Amino acid sequence: MSEEISKDKPLKIDYTPPRERWMEPRVEFRKGTYGYPAASKHEKYLELPNPREWQPNEEDWKLPEDWKEIILKGMEDRLDRYRSFRLFLDICVRCGACADKCHFFIGSGDPKNMPVLRTELLRSVYRRYFTLPGKIFGKLAGARELTKDVLKEWFYYFYQCTECRRCSVFCPYGIDTCEMTMMGRELLNLVGCNINWVIEPASNCFRTGNHLGIPPHAFKSTVDFAIDELKEITGIDVEVPINRKGAEILFVSPSADYFASPHWYTFLGYLLLFHEIGLDYTWSTYASEGGNFGLFHSADLAKRLNAKIYSEAKRLGVKWVLGGECGHMWRVIHQYMDTLNGPADFLEEPVSPVTGTPFENAKSTKMVHICEFTADLIQNRRLKLDPSRNDKWKVTYHDSCNISRGVGLLEEPRYILRNVCNEFYEMPENTIRERTFCCGSGAGLGSDENMEIRLRGGLPRANAVKYVKEQYGVNLLTCICAIDRATLPPLLEYWVPGVEVAGVHELVGNALVLKGEKERTTNLRGEPIKGEEEELHV
Amino acid sequence: MGLWYSISGILLLVFFVVIGIEGIGLYSFFTIFIPYAAVLLFVVGFIYRVLKWASSPVPFHIPTVCGQQKSLPWIKPDNIDSPYTTGGVVKRLALDIFLFRSLLKNEKVDLEAPHRLLFRTSTLLWLGALAFHWSFLIIILRHLRFFLEPVPSVVVILQRVDSIFQNLLPILYISDLIIVIALGYLFIRRIIYPQVRYISLPSDYFVLLAIGGIAISGVLMRLIYKVDLVQVKEWVMAMLSFRPMPPKGVNLLFYIHLFFVSLFIAYFPLSKLMHMPGIFLSPTRNLLNVSRHRRHVNPWNLPVKVHTYEEYEDEFRQSMKEVGLPLDRE
After folding, report:
1. CB of B79 less than 8 A from some CB of A
2. Contact, B264 vs B34, CB < 8 A?
3. Is the same domain home to A422 and A500?
4. B2-302 in CATH: which number?
5. Is the ipTM of this complex over 0.85?
6. Which of A57, A106, A468, B138 has the fewest other C-beta atoms within 10 Å?
């Protein structure tokens, strides 16, 4: 956490708009409120435009000579290619219903974080160059010249949106600020204005197959390490196939699952589950990333990274693909993959090899969510579960933005949770399901240098967690998103100390009674299964 | 600032009509040329804008999902908020178009303590918007009696129902009363809520004031300054048969009313009022959430440079071999 942020100096939130009108572009690049720009070596590796070393807080952004023409041409091009772009720029009535739906506005009070104004930043330029009233009446019609200051404002605010789509639930026309942010970022990227937290993972993923840049041999050793750990906890030798041709299923999860904490325990959960049901599957080192930071850059880059999943499925000759717990990964897989890199006509319609259930909903894309898969196993009573092994946890569930508003996968994880733990409590109705609040760090904003904005954006989520903590003593927040698992722990530590974060399949792994396992004394975290207090009383 | 621009703009326009009619007597200009031009602009502009949207494809399948997806057979799917049939998506759109359902979800967030949020349901905007749009629609339908001969019974019935309180308040239409109140609310909220005021453009006030001008001039004609309706209908029928004749000696209010109506329909395709046809095309609302079940095709799906497995293996072959990972080429 950066030094500026401490509990002694609480973050100030004021919803009163400033005196100056929003049409005057003015951005202050204050430490803690923006991400560092992309390192040029990563931009070069991905062959992106205008790679250079620069800093947002410096006056000169080293833009290309004809930056304005590039942006306007890019805008024109995208207006013709995306109905959403043209339509959403045209039909907003500025009713203001979206204003306090954005977690960044709620946590910062900065009026340009109201979805309507975030889009007005683009819309004002659109009016000036692409509409008749804007060309004639200029400022009076809400039109603005495209200047370097406007561009800087775009950079600041389009990298202060997590593309969570909560505003689009409340908009009477479904205007989706995520689409606007995506377009804004695509335009910024045409002149090389982007952040390292997006570009470096994307470049890593392009080269090594995963965001974290883990080469195949390191992947192998991390898997070996997991096998040892599982042996110690359960006494079972788990087999983990990698790059195995002819397996029935290719499993793809976000790379953080096998490298970061607390993701790791979810990873262990997957391995135990697959072992127990004897799944004929394989991991891949080439397609070792389900997430897709390309999505936070452009549709093109999303396609370049996503292509690996189908191409690897084809090379390995699997029948279908199973995907792990991740948020934006599932936005891409559910709403983009088939369009970008399909049709997957070389795969078969997915059927659970254990229960025989066909996954009708994934008939075309041929990729199934692990929660759909596991919920089906539990419903068919194919798993022996001992929920009391999770008794030290009082659990709540955080819907990840992309999983809820992108996929509509709401009940499956809840069904699993009710079967693997005894105490499960929902957060207030207006903060879950389609109204869920973002962690505040998605879409590439999860870097440490951006911590103030992350804490502000995370306030609404944290508030709801605090509520269930005070009401029911909740001490574990479960989620099915790798970015959540990475970014919620510091957030909760700041706003709601005492609540841990875990993936759903970590709890599955804890509860799963394996054939031939030794008596488990610790959970997957290596902590005693019984709560510490109980231990002491014994 | 935008507010004052709009108010002075509206006053200027009223002044323009008064001078034009009372001063110079430009009857044909205001009752023939302007209405024809406005209708032409409306029709051409409206079609142009809708075709312009329609000509941009929907490259990706991006419904905003607000309910349980259809997945496993024993999990109850939500066919309205996560539609999986055309019927579902029609219901979803219909609820949004006729009942403004998304707006009904509105809630207001306040700070109860420095870092403690308080959520309150907030239905006033929904109510105001719904009242405004429905009364506007009913008023437009009522006006059909000027355009159709004989007047269809539906319009007559609508008119009777709308004036059901005649015994209490002579000749007052309910819809007239509601639209004036609703417009007043929509206007005042733009001024008194600091955030809404902050985002409001001159055009946002202007549209409300222009519709307000239409409504108030209409109400006044009905309540106080009676207008010769026979003459008005004759003028409309003449216009419709393209043998236009300006009505003469009708109250000035009629010309103001007509001018604001013309202004409104001419301005319509140039403005945010296009949200009316726009919502039908909104890809977050009009698509089915069956993205993995049925493939969505992007007409411009551009080719991109990928990093192939061969390139990958070439780079990592040695280290893969050392840890015993299978290789395509040794």
Report:
1. no
2. no
3. yes
4. 1.20.950.20
5. yes
6. A57
